[in-house]
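Progress report, Aim 2. The chain analyzed during this reporting quarter is listed below.
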Amino acid sequence: MDKADDKPPSQPKPKPKPRRKGRMAEALRNIEEYAADLRELISKLRRRPH
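Predicted structure tokens for the chain:
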């Protein structure tokens, strides 16, 4: 037998998944929106009489 016959058949390499463009931009938008909501909440709590 040849050495080529001893090797198992190679499996095709999976194609890399395309990265979603703007993932970092979307994360930053979410963080900014969350921070804005927190700022609004803090300002409302400061105005509230104790």
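The longest helix spans residues 23-47. Residues 23-50 form one domain. These observations will guide the mutagenesis work planned for the next reporting period.
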